[in-house]
Amino acid sequence: MIIAVDGPAASGKGTIARALARHYGLPHMDTGLLYRAAALNLLRMGLEPESEFAAARACDIDQIDLGDPDLRSEAAGSVASRISAFPLVRQALIERQRHFAALPGGAVLDGRDIGTVIAPNAQAKLFVTATDEVRARRRWEELRAAGLDARLEDVLADIRARDQRDSARSAAPLRPAEDAERIDTSTLPVEAAIAAAIAAVERRRPSA
Ligand code: C5P
Question: How many domains does the chain have?
Fold first, then answer.
């Protein structure tokens, strides 16, 4: 079974995707990490994020350790959201994701375009949302827990800018697949959000 989990930044999709992978014993791919790896590569190579060709060159990410803590930085996230609008970048990273989705026992992938572009054939598709304010506060709390000093207003502005770029781009924009089940995590505790996700997958699961 392929499970596609899409949604905007800090919506809770990563937590839900990891929990679903554990619950169903499936491998999980956080596809945002691939875009972040390309962004980090580009920053380290000193290339221009405005150039589609430079960004496409940075997609050779084999030498990037996907556990590198720098991938989680705001700088990597912000450059990732800029270069992910380039068709050449999306094309360079698509194969890796489709290959993962096609693993024989199935897989869980989270991102922005899993249910629409990467795995439109997924049996279960979730679109995870939360209000801008709730998502900004979550991200701000994560940054503070990591010892980073950030202002809540700045984090909110960054989240809104990123949502705008992800939704407005013409290449694989962030949008729910027609057959996706929506989960709004704004007022849900983590365990309740996970339970809602499992219930949604169960409704879609092919009967064995
Ligand atoms: O999910 P995360 O914040 O790590 O993703 C970083 C950026 O990568 C997003 O803002 C988005 O622009 C891009 N991305 C994408 N398609 C995906 C996953 C991430 O365009 N499937």
Answer: 1
Measured CA to CA, the distance from residue 110 to residue 180 in angstroms comes to: 13
Tell me, in angstroms, the distance from the centre of ligand 1 to residue 5's CA: 12
Range of the domain at 26: 2-204
Q: 85: CA distance to ligand 1 center in Å? A: 10
**Nearest of 171, 162, 110, 118 to residue 139 by alpha carbon:** 162
CB of residue 169 inside a 6 A radius of ligand 1: no
- Say yes or no: CB of residue 112 within 6 Å of ligand 1: yes
Chunk the chain into consecutive blocks of 10 residues (it has 208) and report each block's average pLDDT, rounded to whole numbers. 96 97 98 97 94 96 92 90 95 97 97 97 97 96 88 94 91 94 97 98 82
Q: How far, in Å, CA of 99 to CA of 117, rounded?
A: 13
| CATH code for the domain of 19 | 3.40.50.300
